[in-house]
Write a structure and sequence with these properties.
Keywords: Carbohydrate metabolism, Isomerase, NAD. Pathway: Carbohydrate metabolism; galactose metabolism. This is UDP-glucose 4-epimerase. Belongs to the NAD(P)-dependent epimerase/dehydratase family. By secondary structure, the protein is α/β, with parallel strands linked by helices. 37% of the residues lie in helices and 16% in strands. The protein is built from 12 helices and 13 strands. The strands form 4 sheets. Strands 3-2-1-4-5-6-11 form a 7-stranded parallel sheet, with helices on both faces. Helix 1 links the parallel strand 1 and strand 2. Helix 9 packs across helix 11. The radius of gyration is 20 Å and the shape is globular. It starts with 19 loop residues before the first strand and ends in a 5-residue tail after the last helix. Bound molecules: nicotinamide-adenine-dinucleotide and UDP-4-deoxy-4-formamido-beta-L-arabinopyranose. UDP-4-deoxy-4-formamido-beta-L-arabinopyranose (WQD) binds next to helix 7 and strand 8.
Length: 369
């Protein structure tokens, strides 16, 4: 099905051509922030999204936040598993590059429903790559994840560490990375950048767009946010006996605004005449923060006391992981600038203005239909 809201058209109902980026999954958390920055940089952006884990309201808010440039934003409700619908989108305009965010990302759900995850994330991506190739669009930025480092043998993680992963979601990231490397070997015209995000958090400083997961959040920050606004009673801290400074797990949290500028840097690199092949970059800050440090920072930002319950380690979790940022700094000329306090401030700004996310309270806890 194709959806083409009036406010996202150029008035004539057809797309006119200038440097145009296709953003899959652009209604989601990272995609919406990146789309806004792309518009700010003067790109035309076509967002496609199944709205499986997002709502169209995020795209509308991005268009509003972009002001004049909002006219350069187009939205189609398309599921990547529907190759015919993808064909229609590609036949309407010529894309200069694709940023591929679309995918399901809940680790526990992927363990319970592996085939659903493999179909969505693998078949969806293969459809996209095939249609791109047919239409001569061979520039891609792919949302990979620090999950491909599995239980890392050393930290900080450099991009050349051995890759492994512990769950079906992680395997979809690892397999797509391998497919991308094979694709470039078979056809060196492809330019592919694999961005391995660490732990994305925060929100746009306006508080108008942010993360709004469907159902019970899997990740620390959205759960913490829902406790702070009173949607959940307490935060469960998974594991207090890790060999870290306070016994809780250490992660590399990165502000979504920094991630978005990382994508702009990657797109710019795709357009350089240099041979870049298929290459991976970490997007992280290089700094590790414990769960209790995040809770303390969030309490400072929100002025709310977060009730905690201490529990055993969550299966599959590693003790400590954070990025080496050297390769991205050197080759993308990109470096994260936001601090943990900035991340918590912006997360709370989004949460306090949108305690039920983009949705009506009756729908906010809904499961996937
Ligand atoms: P998100 O769920 O907010 O956004 C993903 C979007 O993809 C959603 O809007 C969803 O509706 C859409 N989508 C899913 N399957 C689709 C399909 N078959 N066709 C079209 N659209 C589809 O998640 P996010 O946090 O913005 O993550 C974006 C990407 O980054 C994902 O690929 C995710 O795996 C990856 N990633 C996320 C994190 C994280 O912690 N947020 C970390 C590392 C990597
Ligand atoms: C962070 C820390 C938890 C929730 C996951 C995916 C990974 C990537 C990023 C997509 C850990 C602790 C969490 C809670 C807690 N996503 N925690 N209570 O596990 O580093 O990575 O998201 O690619 O693939 O696995 O992130 O936010 O779930 O956990 O104590 O309710 O917070 O144990 O130490 P994680 P997270």
């Amino acid at each position: 099905m194709i959806h083409f809201p009036q406010e996202c058209t150029n008035g004539s109902g057809s797309l006119c051509h200038q440097q145009t980026i296709l953003v899959t999954g652009g209604a989601g958390f990272i995609g919406s922030h990146t789309t806004l920055q792309l518009l700010g940089e003067g790109y035309k952006v076509v967002v496609i999204d199944s709205l499986d884990n997002s709502v169209e309201e995020s795209v509308k808010r991005v268009a509003d936040l972009a002001g004049e440039n909002g006219h350069n934003l187009y939205f189609f409700r398309v599921d990547l598993r529907d190759k015919d619908a993808l064909e229609v989108v590609f036949s309407m305009t010529k894309f200069d590059a694709v940023i591929h965010f679309a995918g399901l990302k809940a680790v526990a759900e992927s363990v319970a429903k592996p085939l659903f995850y493999y179909r969505n994330n693998m078949i969806g991506t293969i459809n996209l790559l095939e249609v791109m190739a047919e239409h001569g669009c061979k520039k891609l930025v792919f949302s990979s994840s620090a999950t491909v480092y599995g239980q890392p043998s050393s930290v900080p993680c450099t991009e050349d560490l051995p890759l492994s992963t512990t769950n079906p979601y992680g395997r979809t990231k690892l397999f797509v990375e391998e497919i991308a490397r094979d694709l470039h070997i078979a056809d060196p015209e492809w330019k592919i950048i694999l961005l391995r995000y660490f732990n994305p958090v925060g929100a746009h400083p306006s508080g108008l767009i942010g993360e709004d997961p469907r159902g019970v959040p899997n990740n620390l920050m959205p759960f913490l946010q829902q406790v702070a606004v009173g949607r959940r009673k307490e935060l469960t801290v998974f594991g207090t006996d890790y060999p870290t400074k306070d016994g809780t797990g250490v992660r590399d949290y990165i502000h979504v605004m920094d991630l978005a500028t990382g994508h702009i840097a990657a797109v710019r690199k795709l357009f350089t005449p240099k041979e870049i092949g298929c290459t991976a970059y970490n997007l992280g800050t290089g700094k590790g923060t414990t769960v209790l440090e995040i809770v303390a920072a969030f309490e400072r930002a929100s002025g709310k006391k977060i009730p905690l319950r201490y529990a055993d380690r969550r299966p599959g979790d590693c003790s400590e992981i954070y990025a080496s940022t050297e390769k991205a700094e050197r080759e993308l000329q990109w470096k994260a600038v936001y601090t943990i306090d900035d991340m918590c401030r912006d997360q709370w700004n989004w949460a306090s203005k949108n305690p039920w996310g983009y949705r009506h309270p009756d729908l906010a806890n809904g499961n996937r239909t």
